[in-house]
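Quality-control log, excerpt.
Job 1 of 2 completed; input and output follow.
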Amino acid sequence: MSDIYDGKVRIFRTTHSGDVYQMRMYIQEEQKYVRKSLKTRDKQLALTIAENEYIRYRAKILSGEKIFSISAEELRTRYLESVEELVTAGQISEGRGRNIKTYTKHWMEFVGKATRIQSIDKKFFQGYRAYRQKKVKDITMTAVVNETITIKQMYRWTVNEGLMPGTYVPDFGKINVQKNEVRRESFSVKDYTSLVDVASKWYTKVPTDHVK
C-alpha cells in the first residue's frame, strides 16, 4: 500500500484482485471515492499510472466537470425543472414546455432511465430515428428532427451545468426529410366556400365584452 499526493491517492493490492494494483481517490467536491484497477502488478508502473489518473481527474474537476455521472432520469428531472422556471418567467410558452417534456421522455425511454449519461456513446443516437419509427409507424422525419433539436438543447444545458464534457454532442446521423412531407391537403372549392361563408358572419354571435 502506498500513498501519493499527500495521501490524496492510494494504491494497493488485494487477493481478490489477483495482486493487480488498484487505485482509490477521494473526490472532495462530490464526497465520493473513485476506485479503479491499474491493470498491472508492477508497483512503479502502478504509481505512474495513478499519478496520471490523478492529474486527469483534477483537470476535469477544475473545468467544472462532474466525475460521477447522473442517470438519464435524474438529468431529465433537473432539466425539466429549469424549463418550468423559463415557462413561469414567460421566457418560453407553455406549449413549448409541454413539447420539451414529451420529447425528453422519448429520449429517456430510448437510452434507458437508469443509464449513466456519461456512459452513452455519441453514435448511439444514430439509432434514434429507427427507434421512433418503430414506436410510431407514421411519424414524419420533420417530427423526429424537431425531437433531436430539443434533445441537443438539453445536452447543451447539461454541458453548461458541468454534468458532461464540453465536447459532447449527440450524433443522430443523417435524417432525410422529404420535401413537403407535412404539407396539408388543400380545401375543395365546396369546403373553401363554406369556410369563407361561416367566417364572414361568425363575429356577429360573439359578445361585445368578450376578452378576445
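Job 2 of 2 completed; input and output follow.
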Amino acid sequence: MKPTSEDMGYVRKNDNIAGAVVANADGEIFELEGYAAVAMAGKTRTVLATEDVVPMPHGGEPMLLPDRRPVAYNLAEERLEVLAENPYDPGQPLFPVAVFNSPGYVVAGLCAYEENQGAGWLPLFSYAATGWLGNRLVTPAICVDTEKRQDLRLMDIGKVQAGVARMRRKMPGNRLRAHLEKCALVYGCPAGKNFFLRRFEAPLPTSKTCNAACLGCISLQSGDEIPCSQNRISFVPTPEEIAEVALAHIGQVRNAVVSFGQGCEGDPLFAAKAIEPAIRMIRAETSEGTINMNTNASLPDVLERLFDAGLDSIRVSLNSVRKNCYDAYYRPRGYTFEDVVKSIVIAGEKNRFVSLNYLNQPGFTDSPEEIEVFLAFLDDYPVHMIQWRNLNFDPLRYYDIMSEACPLGEPTGMRNLLAMVRERFPSLMFGYFNPPKEKWSSFT
C-alpha cells in the first residue's frame, strides 16, 4: 500500500508549486511529470511552493542520492508517494536529487527521500530540496551573505597558479605555504585560493589534533562508513612560518582576515604553543588585519592567553546550545559544553568579537525546543554575529541522533527562525564569512 499524506506529515497545498526532479539509473536528471517537488524537515514533508524557492545559486551542484527513493507529491491523486521505479522505464529505479547550495545560502528545506534497506551513509554535504520551475532548478534557500568571497567565477585557475608561483619565490622554504598550495590546487579550497589571489581571508591551518570527534568532521573519521573530504595537516608550522604567511596576506590585502581553524586541521587551540608567539610576531610588525580563530572554544584558559597575545575574534562552532545535543554531535573528549560557554564569556570580558558558527539543519534547528533555548542563549552571552552554516551530514540520520538526545517538536521553519532572531536581536550580524574588524557594525 502506498503511504498517505497522513502517514508522512502535513502537506501544504498550493497551486504555485515546483515540479519534482529525480534521476534515473544512468544519472540523468529530469522533471517527473504529474508530480510536485517535496521538501523535508525532520519527519515533516511539504510541497515545494514557488514563494519558498530561489533559482539554484551559481556554484550550487545537483546530486543524486544513492540507495534512496524520492518522495514526491502526486498531483492527480493529491498524495505523497515514495517512488520505487521509473515510470518511463518500468522496473528501473528512480533516485532523489538534492542540491548542495553555494556559500551564503541557508537551506530552508531538505531533499525528501526514504532509505532503501541496507543504505550506506551519505557523504558530508548538505542536501537541499530541489524542484523544476521556470525552466530551471530551484531550491528552498535563504541568502544571508552576498559577499563573493567564495564565488568560483572570480577564482581563475591561471591566476591562482600565478599566485602560487609568486609565493613560492617569496617564501620558498615555508611548509605552511606549501600546504596551502595543495589546498588550493588539489582540493580546490576557496580559502586556499583566496590567499594566492590576494583576496579577503587567508587560512592558517596549524593543528594535527582535536579533542572532539565530530560526527561530520571532514578531515578525520574513525571508521570507513563516512569518507573524509580532505587530509588533515600532518605537521605544526613554526611561529615563523605562520607569521610569514599571515604578514604576506595582511600586507597585500585591504581589510584582510587571517584565520586559524580550517577544515584541514584539528582544533587550533591544540597548536597554541606555535600560534601564541606567531600572533605576537604579527602584531609586532603591524596592527592591520584581523586575526581570527575558528574553534570549538574548549580550552578557555588557552584561549585567554591568545586574546592577550593579540587574537581579535573567534568563531565558535555549535550545532546546538543544548548540552545533550551538543555532546551527541561533537562527542567531546576531556572538555564540557560549560567550557565552551566560559570561553565566550572570556571573549566578552576581553572585548573580543564573537561569532557563532551555527551548524543548522531544518527539522532540528528550527524545532520549538531548540529555538527557545537558542534565543535565551543569545540573551545571556556576548555574541555579535551568527554565521548560518548548513550542516554537512546525512539528514535523516542526524535527525534520528538528535531526537534521541533531546525532544523535538514540529519545526517552525528556518525562515521563521531567522525572522524571530532578527526581530529580537536587531543589532546581531547575520552572515556566512568571518568579517574584518572594519565591518564589525554591531560590535560594542
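Post-run check on job 2. The longest strand covers residues 29-36.
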